[in-house]
Each structure stands twice: as structure tokens, then as C-alpha cells.
Amino acid sequence: MSHFSAMLRHLLELIRFSHTVFALPFALLAAAMAWAANLRDHPPVPFRWFDLLGILLCMVFARSAAMAFNRLADRRLDAINPRTQTRHLATGVLSTGSVVLFTAVCSLGFVAGTLLFLPPNPIPLRASLPVLAFLFGYSYAKRFTVLSHFWLGAALMLAPLAAWVAIRAELAWAPVVLGPRSCSGSPGSI
């Protein structure tokens, strides 16, 4: 196995990439609802392959960036906690620099994924950096509030809300109601 493929395997293990599948159904369901919605003031939004690709890319890159950032933020604590001291950064399997680079690449991938909604919708691009900041904020919320799991829940709820806004360029009650279900017991959490 080459050095690159070994590092990639370790990076995917670090962020528990296989758990990405748990967050995707809520974003995809919200997107399907957005395409099918017949809101009183608006005609249905036509299906576009670029929108579907954008949702998939944004979900994978945003979650990967957030998970990697969380591991970076916790690396010193992980090293002294018996439950987490075998993680990749704590043991030196991955270097801090490689995880920083991975986080940056995934963050750029997320922002680039929002470009697929242009035209006609500039909202995902405009919201991309605030969304990343909010996702990354969870890693430090754990240090100053006992309500950090509400922050995590809100981060997970962004998936259906963001998918709806990406498709329809507006917010409605459907993804707001779907949002809380996206964060109930998800093993793919940050």
C-alpha cells in the first residue's frame, strides 16, 4: 500500500467517513421535498443534476471538515483521555499538518460545492463560510457550555435546512420540522 493511500485511509478513519451516510438521508429528503413542493406563491422548482451533486458534495465536505477540525481541536485532550488516546492524532499515526491540510481541502471543497447552485441561487455560497464557522464552533462549545449537544444538534439540523434553501432559495416549515429528526441519535455526529 502506498504512503498516500495509507494516509487517505487513516484520514477517512479519523473522520469516521462511513458514518457520513447517516446524515445524507435528511438532506436528500429535504431536497426531494423542495423539488416536489407546490408552495402557494411559487411554482415547483425543477430537478437539476447540479443541485443533487451540490448537496452530496456539500454534505460530504462539510461533515469531513467539521470532523477533522474537531479532532484537531481535541488532539491534546485526546492524548490524555484513556478513552481517546488511541486516536490518530494522539498516537502520531497522522500529523497535525496533514489533518490541517485535510480540513482546509474539505473546507474548500464545501465552498466549491456551493458554486453548483449558481445560477440562480447565491445563498449557499454566501452562507458557506458562516456555516463552516458554526460547524467548527461546536469543537470549542464543548469547553464553555453544558449545552454543547444542542449546538451539535443545531449543526446536524443544518443539513435539511441547507438542502431546502439550496434548492428553493427560501425557508419553509417542511425542513424546519424535518430538522430535529436529523439529529436524534445520529452515530455520524461530530
Which features would summarize this protein structure in a list?
190 residues, mainly alpha, 69% helix, disordered C terminus
Quick structural overview:
It contains nine helices and no strands. With 190 residues, it is an all-alpha fold.
Explain the overall architecture.
The protein is mainly α and 190 residues long. Helices cover 69% and strands 0% of the residues. The chain contains nine helices and no strands. The chain has helices at residues 3-14, 20-36, 49-73, 75-80, 88-91, 96-114, 123-144, 148-168, 173-178. α2 (20-36) packs antiparallel against α3, α6 (96-114) runs antiparallel to α7 and α7 (123-144) runs antiparallel to α8. The protein is globular.
Which term fits the overall shape?
A: globular
Residues in helix, %: 55-70%
Give the overall pLDDT as a whole number. Answer: 89
Q: Report on the biggest sheet.
A: none
The radius of gyration over CA amounts to: 17 Å
Q: How much strand content do the residues show?
A: under 5%
Elements, N to C (H/E):
HHHHHHHHH
Number of discrete helical segments: 9
Backbone structural class: mainly alpha
Q: How many distinct beta strands?
A: 0
Low-confidence stretches: 185-190
Terminal-residue CA separation: 29 Å
